[in-house]
Amino acid sequence: MTEFGLIEFAARLFADADRHGWEAIGDDCTVLPVGGGEVIALTTDMLVEGVHFLRDATAPQQLGRKALAVNLSDVAAMGLQPVATLLSVALPRGAEDGWARGFIEGYSELSHREGVALVGGDTTSSEHGIAINVVAIGRGAAGHVKRRSAAHTGDMIFVAGELGASALGLADILAGRTDTPYAAVHRNPEAQTAEGVWFGGRGEVHAMMDLSDGLASDLLHMLRASSCGAEIDVGTIPAVGGDVRAAVCGGEDYKLLLTAAPEAAVALSRDFRARFGRELYRVGRIIAGNPRIRWIERGAEIHPDWHGFMHF
Amino acid sequence: MTEFGLIEFAARLFADADRHGWEAIGDDCTVLPVGGGEVIALTTDMLVEGVHFLRDATAPQQLGRKALAVNLSDVAAMGLQPVATLLSVALPRGAEDGWARGFIEGYSELSHREGVALVGGDTTSSEHGIAINVVAIGRGAAGHVKRRSAAHTGDMIFVAGELGASALGLADILAGRTDTPYAAVHRNPEAQTAEGVWFGGRGEVHAMMDLSDGLASDLLHMLRASSCGAEIDVGTIPAVGGDVRAAVCGGEDYKLLLTAAPEAAVALSRDFRARFGRELYRVGRIIAGNPRIRWIERGAEIHPDWHGFMHF
Q: What is the ipTM of this complex?
């Protein structure tokens, strides 16, 4: 059974269970409406030594920041403010002291920078490798929640930053060039938390998610959830170093992908630039039809073999 | 650095962080007041193959139930209703299929019995052993939350069931007697969820927690949190099979430990019996002074070498 097979198996077993107000699984976070017009949102990620990181190749401080950042990105992708996390750590002999301290230092450093509390967790020993589980908790107005399923035909599609730097950095690291600027981006991903909350407050923004597996893969998830298609103008993709393949297929950029009402697109881009001093990139539009991406280059559809990045 | 050393290190690093309304760590769950006079409570536990279980010695269905039960018990210990969980699983080659299915089946079975939704999670591969992280989420009235720190001098101390069966079961299993009734209790712990919610609604119940490490250890945590002492009448401890050491030092009973105003003790016991058809056992009282347990046998203090169970 693959990762997705197991998730589907669990989903079938739980299909008839009372959800107590929690929304269905399938977005970056699961959302619970609470009192006062607010919601709580939760997301979780598990990182395993030898699969997600190599102990000798990654500084523990960096891994601490990265483990947190990817979860904060999921909260930001809902349009909500990350407020707290839970952290579970299993440590084999030899990692209990220096490694664990370094990890917690990095985790704490980014937590402070993002204003996120650590409100619970678990620590245990391990017979083999390190295992880490992070839960991030977001909070905000119910009306600010942005879902993958909310793209409308005619919406403009935007990405909130340049794409591909992390993939280029991974290529650098694998080639032994561990000190390039791209390698640093790969090791220190940043969640667009301020941007996510800002988009949450913009009613013209419809669907949103974060780009963790690459545009080719993640946009498809959004299209499936929204039952529509997309046209992407390849020439407008903000590809780092001009490498469109890295920008489209590369994972771990953690930039926000969103759609917005076409009549508000100009104002949204202008206000984003005024607020963040950077570009909001318009890369295409939502079209009616099957969940499929039409890649358009100089006005004509092309058929590249672009697929997303599989973590598993 | 030990388990507690790492937790203290993290607590120091986060001492100055904005908690966004979340209560301090130190109880069975961490609690967030939300709108409408309600709270959300969260708890998490990580289970690692070779440390918490042996793949060949534990049926995956049983482990699925147990991994959930211990977290539901933490929610019940706050006086709150468990409503949902998040489940992360890391699976090595060979465990992806049959083992994982069995685990999810057991987890789902108990989730349905307890009316708890699965609202998120993560699955990943693993190079070595299985690692599991469960998060349980409770919800309820803010006024129903029971904390470890709320014991008052003069309170009566109760346990909500017999103690020691899990420790006797573990001893049976280690001696090769794997099919005794106690062994079954050890493998299939039950969370007192209905009892916890019921105690939550009783204003005369002050402090509460669940017994995971044994009365000798857990009561001390309550006394430290409440800045008081306790006298336990050894003859009143509901020890399974008359084995007081197993009852006091044994872990994983998951019965509720609580204190209540002395004038309400009789009514509380009577109403508990009427509601659940079982005994609420009064085992002692809270006294002023240092956080220390005075074990009283036939009116005189004794000094047994009773210590709690260390999971780590």
A: 0.92
